[in-house]
Amino acid sequence: MRKFKTRIELEAHIPTHRTEQRYHCTTCLRGFARKEHMKLHEATHLEQSARDVLQCDVCPRTFLSKLGRQLHIRAAHENQRNYPCTFCDKRFSQTSNLKHHVEAKHFANKEQSCEK
């Protein structure tokens, strides 16, 4: 049995047990359930100079996806943090970041287990 510190880590682990991984990386053969996840993974095998990189219009940070750049701009440069934590005064730009924060900071001592 594998143990995880947070529910977020457990939820990220669970898909590894799914057998329906229709898409496979052409370099390492790692399987993915979603084509877009496989494409993002495949880009990690390319040399930095060969990657399709998108640069932030405000700072030198670069991204492999339009969504990544868009989320960065909203959070880092437009300060859009529409998701407040109900346990403290922190606010987040994405629900996934809020969820991770709550699990890590407010429920950190609750160990999660995977039975498989």
Going by helix content, strand content and strand pairing, the class is: alpha+beta
- Could you tell me the radius of gyration in angstroms? 17 Å
What is the ordering of alpha helices and beta strands?
EHEEHEEHEEHE
- Do you know the CATH architecture of one domain? 2-Layer Sandwich
Q: Determine the number of helices (DSSP H or I, runs of at least 4 residues).
A: 4
Estimated share of beta-strand residues: 15-25%
* Strands, count: 8
First-to-last CA distance = 6 Å
User: Biggest β-sheet: count, sense, barrel?
Assistant: 2 strands, antiparallel
CATH topology of one domain: Double Stranded RNA Binding Domain
Q: What this model shows, in words?
A:
This protein has a domain at 19-51: Double Stranded RNA Binding Domain. The chain has 4 helices and 8 strands. A two-stranded antiparallel ribbon has the order 1-8. The model has no long low-confidence stretch (mean pLDDT 81). β4 (54-55) and β5 form a beta hairpin. It is of the alpha+beta class and 116 residues long. Helices cover 34% and strands 16% of the residues. Keywords: Metal-binding, Nucleus, Repeat, Transcription, Transcription regulation, Zinc, Zinc-finger. One of its GO terms (molecular function) is zinc ion binding. InterPro entries: C2H2-ZF_domain-containing, Znf_C2H2_sf, Znf_C2H2_type. Pfam families: zf-C2H2.
List keywords for this structure.
116 residues; alpha+beta; Double Stranded RNA Binding Domain; two-stranded antiparallel ribbon; PR domain zinc finger protein 4; zinc; C2H2-ZF_domain-containing; Znf_C2H2_type; repeat
